[in-house]
């Protein structure tokens, strides 16, 4: 299968932290349909992480992501006291102590990454779109997930980018290359939007103008999904689309709220949330005297 | 928690919303047997609550599964909503 | 009296000329940039085919999404009404009309006079229309005609998980990679779309005879699947099923003309 969102693979560790002094070490692994992330948290703080492509085999991808996060840390997998798996392949993380949905993990992760005043989270991935409302603790109060329809997902954007022969990572920038905003593409359905886009090109529209019209259509569609759960400040965006300014800027205009920025890579929300869940679960087990 | 299961596609919005706070104190979980298509199941959610959820394998076909309960004319009370005494279930269409 | 029915669709414009109970001519042209111009072109072609003058036509009826583009029509009807009228005209015992075109699917319940009793429409999602089968045939690299044929050769029913045309294309590709036969994939595709269409038909209530119209009616793979999903033996496919809307518009125009 083609890759819909092409991101760089990377890993990172906090050079100022010494894991050996930590009381609790937990990990969160987010195995998504396109990319996988592993986060290692020490005492509820971010310590190291990795992000890489998901292979055809979920357990393998989970293992590799974790190994890569552990690289250069001197830490071994057995030093990790609790592992939580999340994401689409969460049930396929063989060494996880527990699997938690990506909805709950994203909310938890966003709460950490962008602060506890975050109430609305949008996660737009390669093949789905999630809208989450949460409280000040990062607990989900309302959510929806749409993975039936390609419209409003990275996949829909890719169909249009492919039609225009524009690399997906250039979509955002190119879409601003218009003298004024055009009307949005009127068809929601990706199949019909594609025909519509072909017609617009025939009418003499530039690629940029078509992209602008599609990004706006996508922003409108996503805003409709957000309305179902209610948009409230602060607003945070995670997932692949957070990197597509063409959609993000227009979405901010449509809903009239700017997304809060985080110093962390938005792709980590799921895995980070999972690691934090791990921390809380470990604490509980310790309190119950189940583990030392 | 309001859990919205279903989807929105080009043709419309098809969400079943379950107010799971009502499930935790519900004595008999009528939805499970109340729906002729058996779309509901009891799960332990991420916060360890025992709540009703729409089965994963039917979430993307709700428009079709619920069609029989929703004739274009003369639609009555939906069996699932009637069976859910705490009133936790709503449909968007 | 001679009447004309013009069906202005998104892709094609169809014209039927009707003289009482007899069809004089049928034409279809691709919709161009200027809809009005294409309508004119299609209409002229039909008149030429029938060998009659414009003045010989007593009444003109228009239908289809672009029906407002027929400025000279005296009656304008919705696609649903036109379908019902056309279907009952061709097959008087038809009570359920299933119309599956490239971009839309419709289930209509009609009475003996061709009046609409109830209807349900599947629109704006390609997964519930002919565009779905077209995409899947393309992914399988077979023509639409072959696609229907090979579907009949399969006797295995495998489920398709994706409910979206775009995601289903990937699913078809991975089925090919896992060495599933083209025949079985074709049947899975037809079963998938047929189950969506039958759900819609059930919403209006199934009553026989069932008549299948619209471009997808030519697809024998779909016909086989819809019979199976509806659980009935007999689904009537009239000759030239894609002209039923235009025909219905001509029938309505005639009835309106005292
Ligand atoms: S509207 Fe189009 S993109 Fe969405 S599910 Fe239907 S076919 Fe797929
Ligand atoms: S409407 Fe009918 S089929 Fe749908 S959930 Fe309710 S009881 Fe089940």
From TrEMBL, chain A:
Q: State the InterPro entries in the record.
A: ATPase_BadF (IPR002731), ATPase_NBD (IPR043129), Benzoyl-CoA_Rdtase_bzd_qsu (IPR017605), CoA_E_activase_dom (IPR008275), Dehydratase_Activator_Redct (IPR051805)
Q: Which Pfam families match?
A: BcrAD_BadFG
Q: What is a single molecular function from GO for this protein?
A: metal ion binding
Enumerate the SUPFAM superfamilies for this protein. Answer: Actin-like ATPase domain
Q: What class of enzyme is it?
A: oxidoreductase
Q: Where is the ATPase BadF/BadG/BcrA/BcrD type domain?
A: 28-278
Q: What is its EC number?
A: 1.3.7.8
Q: Which UniProt keywords apply?
A: Iron, Iron-sulfur, Metal-binding, Oxidoreductase
Per the entry, which co-factors are needed?
[4Fe-4S] cluster
Q: Which domain of life is it from?
A: Bacteria
Quote the NCBIfam families the UniProt record gives: benz_CoA_bzdQ, CoA_E_activ
Which protein is depicted?
A: Benzoyl-CoA reductase, bzd-type, subunit Q
Provenance organism: Tectimicrobiota bacterium
Automatic annotation (TrEMBL), chain B:
Q: Which InterPro entries match?
A: 4Fe4S_Fe-S-bd
Residue ranges annotated for the 4Fe-4S ferredoxin-type domain, each copy included? 14-45
* PROSITE patterns per record: 4FE4S_FER_2
Instruction: State what protein this is by name.
Output: Ferredoxin
UniProtKB/TrEMBL annotation, chain C:
Q: Which residues form the ATPase BadF/BadG/BcrA/BcrD type domain?
A: 5-253
Q: Name one GO molecular function term.
A: metal ion binding
InterPro entries tied to this protein: ATPase_BadF, ATPase_NBD, CoA_E_activase_dom, Dehydratase_Activator_Redct
Which Pfam families does the UniProt entry name for this protein? BcrAD_BadFG
SUPFAM superfamilies of this UniProt entry?
A: Actin-like ATPase domain (SSF53067)
Q: Which UniProt keywords apply?
A: Iron, Iron-sulfur, Metal-binding
Q: Which Gene3D superfamilies match?
A: 3.30.420.40
Q: What protein am I looking at?
A: CoA activase
Q: Which organism is it from?
A: Tectimicrobiota bacterium
